[in-house]
TrEMBL record:
Domain CHK kinase-like: 128-321
Pfam families associated with the record: EcKL
Organism, scientific name: Eumeta variegata
InterPro entries cross-referenced by the UniProt entry: CHK_kinase-like (IPR015897), EcKL (IPR004119), Kinase-like_dom_sf (IPR011009)
Protein known as: CHK kinase-like domain-containing protein
């Protein structure tokens, strides 16, 4: 055993695999995936567990272990307690239903979810032990290359399957769906338990002011101020919870939470990871979140409406394969109306996330701590460029 993962947690993992009967003569070795400065609020490690199964054959489990940062003070600025509860709920209640409603589909049509082996919700000792998807050939998109249309198409078509499963889940198991979705409320903009949302709301106000001061076009600036109605945080919170065509949404749908399968560098499929921000909200919110935080200018600017079409056609196709009519959930006219009604959500999320794409960004727990230095308010050239590009695109699409 190495000292990368907390030694007690690593020992617990060995015990779990032993006592569950999965393995005996168990050993485990770990390798940190995330490190300080990466901007994560969880410790994520790869743990390879080896031993012998009930037949005596050698068996290896390649896993990813996710645990909160050990500093309890982080929980004041980031809702870690709520986030781990949310992800455990997703693994224990939602994924089994998603898998059940697509069990009769051909394997190549199904949306795959990582296996969860073990988890704990004990306060300050939370963890999730899950399948390492990278051992099955999934990869992050190459950060050194521009995100192209092929990747964008896979991203939105995968999201369409995710939302289609929500529609089917609601249709087949309405009582269970209602019970689960009542728990998928805001866990970010409101103070609850050990989490104080005042820091993130201070960040929201300052980043909004910084964004407005970065805009060159006075007319565009007026549009954003008017849309925000002098209270950016509340507007963002309202859009997160609003919608007339609601699904179980991912809630944090951006490129870091998507892994791809490739054939000769061409993406052929994807799997969605990290369910800590899942919530019940408009189906277009995830779509707008991805496009609002997709600062690959060529993809967003040249293919926005094409990607919208890919999403809706993929939603239609998956529901049809599963034996359902998309018009029973949302016609194209209803979808387009929802998209326009919720369109400012994409801008609002873009404003919120833009600092993460800027240079020299503080750790997220410091970003949301409420005590950012005065230098934070001065937009860098990159921040100004991203801000103006985002608004120019939304204006050109007729959504602002």
């Amino acid at each position: 055993m190495s000292g990368v993962l907390d030694a007690a947690l690593l020992a617990t993992i060995v015990t779990l695999f032993t006592e569950s009967g999965k393995l005996h003569n168990v050993t485990a070795r770990d390798q940190r995936i995330t490190a300080e400065g990466d901007g994560y609020v969880s410790v994520i490690s790869r743990v390879v567990v080896e031993g012998r199964d009930a037949t005596g054959a050698e068996r290896t489990y390649d896993t990813v272990v996710k645990a909160p940062l050990p500093n309890i003070d982080v929980r004041k600025n980031v809702p870690l307690t709520l986030m781990f509860e949310r992800e455990t709920l997703f693994f224990d209640r939602i994924i089994p239903k998603f898998n059940e409603v697509q069990e009769r589909l051909a394997e190549e049509e199904k949306l795959y979810f990582p296996l969860k082996y073990f988890s704990s919700g004990e306060y300050l000792k939370e963890y999730i032990v899950m399948e390492n998807l990278k051992s099955s050939g999934y990869k992050n998109a190459n950060s050194d290359k521009q995100l192209d249309f092929a990747h964008g198409s896979v991203v939105v078509s995968t999201l369409a399957k995710f939302h289609a499963l929500s529609f089917i889940y609601k249709t087949r198991f309405p009582s269970d769906y209602s019970e689960v979705t009542k728990q998928l409320t805001d866990n970010f903009m409101l103070s609850r338990r050990d989490y104080d949302a005042s820091g993130v709301r201070k960040y929201g106000k300052r980043v909004f002011d910084k964004f407005i001061n970065s805009l060159r076009n006075a007319e565009y600036k007026d549009k954003i101020v008017k849309a925000a109605d002098n209270d950016y945080n509340t507007v963002l919170q309202d859009f997160w919870g609003n919608g007339t065509i609601n699904v179980i949404s991912h809630g944090d749908y951006w490129i870091n939470n998507i892994l791809f399968k490739y054939n000769k560098d061409v993406p052929t499929g994807a799997v969605i990871i990290d369910y800590q921000m899942a919530r019940h909200s408009s189906l277009v919110n995830d779509l707008l979140s991805f496009l609002g935080t997709c600062f690959e200018l060529e993809l967003r600017r040249n293919h926005f409406w094409e990607l919208i079409d890919v999403y809706y056609k993929s939603l239609d196709r998956f529901l049809n394969i599963a034996g359902y009519d998309i018009n029973d959930f949302c016609t194209r006219d209803e979808f387009d109306k929802e998209l326009r009604a919720q369109s400012f959500f994409g801008v609002a999320v873009g404003i919120f996330m833009i600092s993460f794409f800027d240079t020299e960004v503080p750790e997220i727990q410091l970003l949301f701590g409420g005590d950012l230095p005065d230098s934070f308010d001065r937009p860098s050239p990159k921040f100004e460029m991203l801000a103006n590009d985002l608004i120019e695109d939304y204006v050109s699409w007729g959504l602002l």
